[in-house]
Amino acid sequence: MATFTPETDAQVLDAVRWALDKTEPLELVGRGSKRGLGRPVQAPHRLDLSGLAGIVAYEPEELVLTARAGTDLGEVAAALNEKGQAFAFEPPDLGPLLGAPAWTATLGGMVGAGWAGPRRLKAGSVRDHLLGFEAVSGRGEAFKAGGRVVKNVTGYDLPKLAAGSFGTLVALTSVTLKVLPAPQTGRTLLLEGLDDAQGIAALSLALGGPAEVSGAAHLPAGIAVTGKPDGVAVTALRLEGVAPSVEYRLEGLKARLPGASRLLGPEETMEFWRALRDVHPFVEQRERPVWRLSVPPSDGAAVAARLGKVAPGADWYFDWGGGLIWAALPAGPALAREVRGCIGRGGGHATLVRAPAADRAADPFHPQPPALAALSARVKDQFDPKHILNPGRLHSPAAEPVAGVR
Amino acid sequence: MRMPDPDAGIIARRDDLVARLRAIVPDGVVDDADGRRPYETDALTAYRQMPLVVVLPTSTAQVAAVLRACWEMGVKVVPRGAGTGLSGGALPLADGVLLGLSRLNRILDIDFQNRTVTCQPGVTNLAISHAVAHEGFYYAPDPSSQIACTIGGNIAENSGGVHCLKYGLTTNNVLGLELVTMEGEVLRLGGKHLDPEGYDLMGVLTGSEGLLGVVTEVTVRILPKPETARAVLLGFPTSEQAGLAVAAIIGRGIIPGGMEMMDRFAIKAAEEFCHPGYPLDVEALLIVELDGPAREVDHMVELVVEIANGQGAVTARTSADEAERLRFWAGRKAAFPATGRISPDYLCMDGTIPRKALPRVLHAMKEMETEFGLRCANVFHAGDGNLHPLILFDANNPGELERAEAFGAAILRLCVEVGGVLTGEHGVGVEKRDLMTEQFGEADLAQQQRLKCAFDPKQLLNPGKVFPVLHRCAELGKLHVRGGALPFPDIPRF
């Protein structure tokens, strides 16, 4: 086994070409914070991209940042913070949930996973903010896609494909992201004692009004998180922006939702939503499988209720207005078939986020219908015809057609 | 404009093709010359081509059957929405079927609880907003042609509009698609939930200019209308000062709902056309719209005026009521027709540049006016650096169209040179196809074209658009075998 630790783009190209010539796959890693997520990759060699580090260009007035793929996410966040800016999609730090240290994520890993935090419902996800990239494809070719301006429709939007591809299409060498002014302050309005359906209905009512809610979560009584009273369900709505606007919208929201009982201040608001973003409620109980389901918000309560039936003892909470369900099953099997069976006719998908490697070797990502899976496989083949980049990271190799060199 | 050579064999089999299409869509095949004529061009009217035949299906099943038949016969297909595209993306082919989607025009589902609308591709952009207005919602992307352009066309072009600075382009507002591949396979991507379970195929479909698949159903997110919106008119003695004001507003952390700039020529044309009350003694006009909660808007309006005054604004007027706000916008929205009244013809360019390059690019465009001997009016989405220079010409004067095109190409080359891109929202189509090599290298373009091979290996869907050279998929798929020596052996490995 060889581990390549390139420091230049040219070295990444060399490593990929070598692997291509030998048809010996590479596992792509940054600093490994999300290595425990998805299917474990069986590859003889490792391409460690964490040496490709550093911010290349940050232009706050253009709302654009370019950095090399291995750049530490914390370093980028600090640079943005210094100018009062941030990634609007609130990238989560999943390290602790997955048993890795906190804040070891890289920018490339953030893009590869493509996951966003609570502000997803208002500000979009990584896909919505990735403007361009440079990469080496599995064909052993260096290429670029997208651009460095926020408005661009020139050619296919390949950055959309790169975001969330888990390193199975290209090895990113640098990425360009849109950045935005960070909210100056935030407050959180809490309603207490609602059941799941009532809580999600309240979230929906709030999101249907002009309050510009930037976080909408419902936590059943059993979920423990900083800022939440124990033993009682809370329904939480975050308002962010300049202080006078937040206060003004808060009044409007209270009028729309009579019965709101508590208010979290700016500091508490930050801690509360960070805890939900990073799935703190389920970090400690390591033996419990953790699932992440994305469904239409109006289906959220019913899906969770079915989950409680197929996995008695399961705990969950809702984000994204009810459309995102984080669930921890009782210690034991991951129950993939049962959990996915909870998704109704409204559609959605379920990802097994935390489980022993043996359980994640099945299908941690939601299987696609055959025609869609075949198209996805054809797309993979066009970027990585010999399957040398993170083979099987998303789906078991049996589900991926053998790469015919086209 | 060179298009793929028509296939005489296909043209000779036209009767067979028409019969086959008529069996699928009995009341929707147009094969006579008069009936086909309206389809010979889109809004890039400089290019015209009569299609071999036009077919107007009314269901997903019909679309799938039409595509399947064309795939089996090896016939090319050009999809078309309302034909309002400005880059020639719906320009027909002499040996191709023009697939018009205008009869797929039903809204299928309005879901206020999940804040979504699901509709067929032929529904107009504005009709979506109208359908949800009674509950205080709207669909955010608002291209200027929104009264006519369809949501299917918006998906194909990833359309923007004046409000995309704050609310994003089409791609940021689409949740689900039903797609028919060239082989006639029906796929569903996304839905009312967020984020895909695998590769973001919906993301690459959006803005693919009809080259990857035909969209037959769309789910978009709708937003509650902002509580209030106010517009500020700001006049500046120089465009440089206006540009600096734009940078200063963004620099203060303000993202306006819209931020538009017009130059003296465009201001005058708009004022004469519809009398919005623009100042005529300024070189540049900014329209800044702030929307959101009333108190925030009032606060931001004050801040914007203060910033503009700091950059030397000589006019600062804030809309007092909704009628005045709409009047401020009327001139900007009429900029194209207003220009059309002054000049027999015009070309509208669409490059995007980093905002900081604005003074340089404006200055260079002035010099180009002399170089090419043509006038140029400037309106642009200043907030996101998206330029819309309007090059005025008269196609009846021999050589003027060519000169206008050369002028446009020079502007777009400059956009790329300063770190920008060829097109911000109009698409590449045929118009900017041959300039793609200015922005992308050979490897970049080859990888984009390989993506098409995954969707349409026979390259029958809208060929001749976007990419300057058509390569066969077999050729694009070849791998280069190299030595196999262990790379950079001087670095540590384990």
Structure description:
The complex is a heterodimer of chains A (406) and B (494). Chain A is α+β, with helices and mostly antiparallel strands and 406 residues long. Helix content of chain A is 29%, strand content 23%. Chain A has 13 helices and 18 strands. A five-stranded antiparallel sheet of chain A has the order 4-5-9-7-8. In chain A, strands 12-13-11-14 form a four-stranded antiparallel sheet. Chain A is globular. Chain B has 494 residues and is an alpha+beta fold. Chain B contains 18 helices and 18 strands. In chain B, the strands form four sheets. Chain B has a seven-stranded antiparallel sheet with strand order 15-12-14-13-17-18-16, with helices on both faces. In chain B, strand 5 and strand 6 form a beta hairpin. The termini of chain B are far apart. At the A-B interface, strand 1, helix 1, strand 8, helix 6 and strand 10 of A face strand 9, helix 8, helix 9, helix 11 and helix 17 of B.
Brief sketch in words of this structure:
The complex is a heterodimer of chains A (406) and B (494). Chain A has 406 residues and is an alpha+beta fold.
